[in-house]
Amino acid sequence: MSTRAGIVVTGTEVLTGRVADRNGPWVADRLFELGVELAHITICGDRASDIEAQLRFLAAEGVDLIVTTGGLGPTADDMTVEIVARFCGRELVLDAELEARIAAVLKSLMARYTGVDFDAVRAANRKQAMVPVGAQVLDPVGTAPGVVVPGKPTVLVLPGPPWELQAMWPAAMASDAVQQAIVGRTIYHQDTVRMFGLAESGLAETLREAERVVPGFADLEITTCLRRGELEMVTRYEPRSAGAYRQLMAVVRDRHGALVFSEDGSLVDDLVARLLAGRRIATAESCTAGLLAARLTDIAGSSAYVAGGVVAYANEAKVDLLGVDAALIDAHGAVSQEVAKAMADGALRRFDADTAVAITGIAGPGGGTADKPVGTVWFCVKLAEGTTVIRSLRLPGQRSDIRDRSTTVAMHLLRRTLLGEFGALEA
Amino acid sequence: MSTRAGIVVTGTEVLTGRVADRNGPWVADRLFELGVELAHITICGDRASDIEAQLRFLAAEGVDLIVTTGGLGPTADDMTVEIVARFCGRELVLDAELEARIAAVLKSLMARYTGVDFDAVRAANRKQAMVPVGAQVLDPVGTAPGVVVPGKPTVLVLPGPPWELQAMWPAAMASDAVQQAIVGRTIYHQDTVRMFGLAESGLAETLREAERVVPGFADLEITTCLRRGELEMVTRYEPRSAGAYRQLMAVVRDRHGALVFSEDGSLVDDLVARLLAGRRIATAESCTAGLLAARLTDIAGSSAYVAGGVVAYANEAKVDLLGVDAALIDAHGAVSQEVAKAMADGALRRFDADTAVAITGIAGPGGGTADKPVGTVWFCVKLAEGTTVIRSLRLPGQRSDIRDRSTTVAMHLLRRTLLGEFGALEA
């Protein structure tokens, strides 16, 4: 791509890890869709000298566009506009009309809070109406306006709260200054392939073979990564390399066909959602304690097929709410094939569902034994039409990894079951 | 602080936002605990020139220690060690003994996967045994070893998978090279205060007052941020400024006492966990669909007081599993004070619990109406001893924000109820 960009994420709370940055990745996606190559994301605290150093670094790297996020609030540690103005050699001036608009927003906002004197708040927000001379103002979504400062590089200053930044993005992209900055962009293709059950090393070997047999392989920019337990291969290429990509995929399918579950960027969540259309699913969760139900309902419209679920954390809950036979738990333990199956049966029955998923395992750090170490998880997917699929795995990582990974395993087991990949007599 | 550090996060999957970086924030926390000031986190893709540019930038900024994460895998896009070696002007050599150790790890690992030829995998991993001359090797946790390259700056190269990086950290910190790099560090105090129900602007005004009345205020490095719906104030200061901090807190308590819920860094999750000791809690969730139960059980040992919960996404589930009167839903709608209360009643009863939390709301994007717009959420906390607390809010943001924010509101309502802040006749 001939147009490059950099993102400067400001905020001591982000730098120190107290708040996870959601803006860098989101802006990165938007830039890619535009055909703008993102070269760097830099994160620094609320320190003028560090923010300026990052702006200088990105300018020295020759980027055409710098997007900054955060530091537009009313507190003293919010200084991004001031620093960007200085970096761009422009004065700050008060935009009276903008100040009035911010005040209006605040009046309604203050209703939500207690213990705040409105005039004080308005004074605190006056600095948010100071804009660099010649910059284009982007209307505030919350109380903080954004600004676009034209130049080489052009600097786009956006607020920190993700929903404010995202709502402001279209106006920012529509601005003349941004349009001029990205005029040289070229659209690349990006194709994403997702695999489950394959080691990254196995794919690496396949790619080395492809390098030998696929003409034009060198023109494909391939990145692979493990993502929530799945293996993801993303390939970027110019339109002229479409043929090379097709041949690469032929090699990948030939080697790993059965493990490739998505070639169009769809997540397993999307695929499962489609397969659940017209069905009625219920969950029965122990160690994941609601994460699977929450994941299924992340998708808007999931109420059409999600009936609900039971978080049966205590054994009594498995018995009382899912009808698991207490004797089964005594005989085999709560983390067992038998209990997983009984939990799925109970979910089907109690929710009058036609599809059920049960998860019971040991997330740790405590509770592990020699024969059932931390990470041992049993899964059961059951369909009213008669299929029952049961699996167990020993998952690596910490408590949160094991819980999250369990939901991924369950989604894949659910997908394959709904696709009819298992016989009715699996269990 | 007299010792500064920078973090270089590598990985196109991170730069492009396909994978959220968990390492930067984690390493940032560890560095702070050590008294090392983190100046910059930079993120770039798997491109040699960009990685090198970031290393040069951090070196030019005069940091004493650079920590890199990622790019230690077997695939061609994993090139961090090679680039760091070049940056530090050191040759790469094969560590045969290390190669043997990696092979051993792989043999056991391969058991988990299908469709992989072990020798191919081992070949793919040979490059992971190439280390810079004079560098200290950090034993692999997964298959990738880390390295510490002494110098100014010293470069610590760590793997990308968070659990591998975290397990390797102690050995890295114990290495002579790292110890020498951070010898000049000075310990700062850091105190965190958390508030709920206060606007950032209100706190900003309070801080301006403190600036006038607190001697030595200028020596306090204060950052404030909104975090999952809470307002967080973090203050860093040298030991000699402890008095100034005490006076600052007197001002904050005087202005916002009732809204300050934590002064020792505890999260509301921790406070609720302590208050639940000896109790038995159950949840009844509609729009959050398990997120609250999952949040309560994020904490190891929560099985001592979490019985479980019902995700009652469909109305029939509210009736069948929680015993909500269908007529109540018809009369007031599923998102109503009456249904929230009935859900909490059902959770108490069905789980034989003494504490119950119910959440029912409209997460959107669809389902909103004029009188119940998207973001409308009803909460009910009920204690067996007789207290019932009911609240409703209209939460801002998108579906995921509304769902997450709802769990935060529920945690605070639960905390205040368990503290007895509400009368028995609240509802």
Automatic annotation (TrEMBL), chains A, B:
Pfam families: CinA (PF02464), MoCF_biosynth (PF00994). Signal peptide: none annotated. InterPro entries: CinA, CinA-like_C, CinA_C, Competence-induced_CinA, MoaB/Mog-like_dom_sf, MoaB/Mog_dom. Residues 6-180 form the MoaB/Mog domain. CDD domains: cinA. It comes from the Bacteria. HAMAP family: CinA_B (MF_00226_B). Belongs to the CinA family. This is CinA-like protein. It comes from Candidatus Mycolicibacterium alkanivorans.
